[in-house]
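Researcher: Batch entry, complex prediction.
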Amino acid sequence: MIRNPSVYVVDDDDAVRNSLRMLLKSVGIPAVAYGSARDFLSAYHAELPGCLVLDVRMPGMSGLELQEELNRLGAVIPVIFITGHGDIPMAVEAMQHGAFDFLQKPFRDQDLIDRVQRALVTDGQNRSALAEEHQIAERYESLTPREREVLALVTQGKANKVMAGDLGVSQRTVEIHRARVMEKMRASSLAQLVRMVMNLETRKA
Amino acid sequence: MTQPPRDVLQSQLGELQALLDATVDAVVLIDHRGLIESFNRSGERLFGYRADELIGRNVSVLMTARDSGSHDGYMGRYMKTGVAHIIGVGREVDARRKDGSVFPAVLSVGQVRDSDPPRFVGLLHDITLRREAMAALRRERDRANLYLEVAQVILVGLSGDGRVQLINRKGCETLGRREIDLLGHDWVDAAVPPEQRAEAHARLTALARREISSDLYVEYDVMTAAGPRRLIAWRCVALRDAQDALLGFLCSGEDITDRRSIEQSMARTQALLNEAQEIANFGNFEVYHPPTGDAFWSPQLFRIFGLDPAIDVPNAERLAAELIHADDLARFAAEWDAARSAPGNRSGAYRIITPAGEVRHVQITSSTTPWQGERMRIAGTVLDVTEATRAAEQARESQQRMTHVSRLATMGEMAAGIAHELNQPLAAIANYASAASRLTAAPDDSIEDIKLSLEQIAAQALRAGEIIRRLRSLVQNRETRREPAEVNDLVAEVVSFSQSDARLHDVQIRLEPGDDLPVLWIDRIQIQQILLNLVRNAIEAMEGVPPQSRLIAVSTECDGDTAVIIKVTDSGPGVPAALVAKIFDPFCTTKESGTGLGLAISRTIAEAHQGKLTYQRAPGGGARFILRLPSPQQRNER
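Model: C-alpha cells for the complex:
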C-alpha cells in the first residue's frame, strides 16, 4: 500500500496549527493538523509516510512524551520540534531521543519548509531501505536448507570445487544450487549477493 | 435678851401675819409633838383645809403615809440626838391635800428660837410646776439624746481644760470603754492616738481662744479598746457663760470610718476608670435631651476633644460647631439628631479638629433610651482611633506598595509564559503572511486561502495587541480603582493568561462559568491578581501529581442575590492540615522561592472589596480557594 507522504502538525494553539497547515499547503505539501498529541496518536499508524511537526509545550501529553510513545511503538517518522523561547534544554533532550530537528520560535518560514522537505526525503529513504530489507528477508526465507548452506559458503568466497568437497556433493550439483540462490535472491552479481547477506546479518544483530 | 414693849410686839405680830399671808408657801407652826399650832392663808389655799380644821392635829395629816412616817422618824431622832437632818436644808416631800390629792413640795423646817419645849416652823413650797418643767426638760433631754442615738452621734462634753464631763452611750460604745473610766480624764490623752494629740489639742486651744470659728470641724482618729482606730468627724463648740468666760466644749462626733472607706474605694474606682480611659484613650458621656443641665463627659473625653476638663463643660452644640471636621459635620449632625430623638444604638467615625488645630479620628458609639417618660438619655463612648486610623492608612499604603512588588514578582515569574503567549499570534501571523505571499503565485486557484490567511493575520495581530494591553494593565502601579466588571470575562482572561504557565507544567485549566452573574463593582486588575496568584499556586502545588491528573477548575456562581463566588480548585495534595490556619499569614510559605505574601495580599485585596478569601479542602482532596465578592445591591444596603 503506497500513500503520498503528509506532514502531521500537532499544536494546541488553533492559530499556530492552522497557519502552519496553510504555510505548508502554499508550497504544495499536504498537511494534517491535530490539536493534541492524543488526537494524533489515535489517527496515526506506522505505515503512514510523512513527518511530524510538534510543539513541545502542550497540555495533556507533551511533545516529548509523544516522541517517547512513538519510539516505543518503533515508529520511524521524523519529528521536527517547535520550541519556544527558553526551551533549549527540551530541544536538546528531544534531539537525544532521536528527533529529526528543531526550530525555535519565531522561525523563518523557509527554514520550516526546508526542514520539512528534508524530513520527507529522509522518511522516504528510510521507508525504501526498510522495504528492501523486508524483501531480502523474504527471499532468504524462500531458500532451502542446502541452498542457505551454499549461500553462506559463496559469501565466504569459496570456489565451487572446494564447496563440493565441503558438502560431499559433485561440483555440478554445487553449480546448480548456486544458480538457484542467485535467482531466488534476485542477485545480479556476487557483490550484490554479499551486500544482501551483510544487510541480513545487520538486522539479525 | 429683853422683851420688847408690847405695842412693839403687837405691831411686829401684825407685820408677821401680813408676811405669812402674803407668802405663796404654806407656813405651819408645830410644837415638839408635831401638832399644828398655826396655819397660814397660803396653806389653806394649797391644802384645801381651813386653819381651824388643822390646829391641834399632827402635821403628818399634810403628808402621804410614806413621808409622814419618815417625818416622825426625823422628829424623834432630832429630839433624842439634837442632830437636825432637815433643818435649814429642806427636802422634797409628797404633800396631801384635804381631798386626798398629792402634790410635790419642798419642805423646809426651822426651829423657833427660845422656845422650850421646842417648836418648829415648816414651809411647804408647791413645786408641781417646777417638777413638770423639770420633767419636760428631762423629756427634752431624753428625746435629744434619743435623736443623737438614732443618728449614731457621739456626744462628748469637755471642761475648759479638756476633761471629760459627759459622754453618751454611742461615745462609750465607739471607744469600747465605760463612762466611768472616762469621766474626769483628759479627753485627748484618753481617746486620741499619740501622733494626733498635738493637733487635737491645738485645735481645741485655738477654739478656746476664738482663733477659729466657734463651730470647729475636724477629723481625727480615736483609739478603741478593741484595737482598730475609728475615724471620727468632729463638730465642736465652745461653751461660754454670760460673762463670756469659757465653760468647756461640747463635741459631737460621727463615725465616718466606713463611709470614708467607701468613699476611698469609690474614689479609687473612679481613678482607675479615669486611668483606664487615659490608657485606652476613650471617654464616655451621658447626656439628656431635652437637656437637664447635668450632662456628663468624662475627663478623657474632654482631653480627646482637646478641651480642659477643669474649665470646659459638656456641650454637644460646641462640639458640632467648632470641633467636628467640616466634611463630617452634616453626617454628625444627622446622627446626633437621630440619637436625640429615637431609642437605639448608633456608631459613627468622625474627624475632629481640636482647638490646637490637631486632626483626630474618633469613633462615637451611643445608646439612646427613653428616660422617665419625657426625655431621652444618650450614653456612649468616644474612642480616639487616630493612631489606629493612621496605622491603617499606612498599612494600606504599604499594602499597595507590596501589592505592586508582588505584581512585579508575578510579572517576573510569568515573563517567560507571556513571551510564549505573545509568540503564538506572531508565529501564526508570520506563517499566514508567507503562505499568502506564496499563494499569490497561483492566485486563481488559491484566492480563498489567501483571503483566509489575510483575515487570520488581522485577527492574530489583534490577539497580540490584547495580550500587550493586559500585560500593561498588570504592571501599572495605581490606586484601587473600581469599575463595573463581568465576572466571567474577567475569569476567562485570567485562565487564558495562565494557559502558557499551565502548559509548561502539564496542567489543564477548566473554566466553569456560572449563569446570570451580576456585574460587580471592583478593581478588575486587583481581583485578577488574586485569581492569577491562586492559579499559579495551584499549578505549583501539583508538581508531585501525575501529569494527566493535573487539573485546575475555575468556577463562578451566584450566592443568592448577595454575592458572587469564584472557586479555584486543584487536584493536588491540598494544604497540609498543620498549615491551614496559617496560610493567610504573611511570610507563610511552602515554596522555596516564595515570599509568603501572595495569599496575605490576596486576602487583603478581597477584604478591601468587602469580600472574603477562604480555604477549603476540595471533595477530591485537593485545595479549594473561595473568593466571595459582594454584589453591588448588597453593598448598597450596607
